[in-house]
Amino acid sequence: MDLRKYSAGNYLKSEDVKTTAKMWTIISSEERMLPDGNKPILVLETLTPKDGRVTKDFTVNVTNINRLDECFGTLETDDMVGRKLLLVVEKVDFKGKNVDGVRVDVEGTKSINKER
């Protein structure tokens, strides 16, 4: 087991979406204890010409939980494994500051999963 995947460096950041990829595949999910409590994590994977296979951990907040439900019609992560996610960067309020945040693109995600 590569323990680096559990370090802070493996969490998906807005910069990853801007520079690496916008489309990701959900490969698994888990609940993880973070400094601010237990959080749902989707483990995502994408392929890039530069780095090949890239895996990142996506901490799912309430906004993205609602968007996932709208995309897939379920809040059961086991039913999401294998599905594709289109992610975008949006300005969000975080602790009183306007920062880049990663959001699920509902219409884009629905569109790329129509064949399922």
Point out poorly predicted stretches.
none
Total count of helical runs of at least 4 residues? 3
Shape assignment: globular
Number of domains as seen in the coordinates: 1
What's the average pLDDT? 90
- Oligomerization status of the protein chains: single chain
Order of strands across the biggest sheet? 3-2-1-4-5
Largest sheet: 5 strands, antiparallel
- N- and C-termini, Cα separation: 32 Å
Structural class: alpha+beta
Q: What portion of residues is helical? A: 10-25%
Secondary-structure element order, as H and E? Answer: HEEEHEEH
Give the DSSP E fraction (strand runs of 2 or more residues): 35-45%
The Cα radius of gyration reads: 14 Å
Work out the number of β strands. 5
Structure description:
- The protein has 116 residues and is α+β, with helices and mostly antiparallel strands.
- It has one domain.
- It contains 3 helices and 5 strands.
- It has a 5-stranded antiparallel β-sheet with strand order 3-2-1-4-5.
- α2 packs parallel to α3.
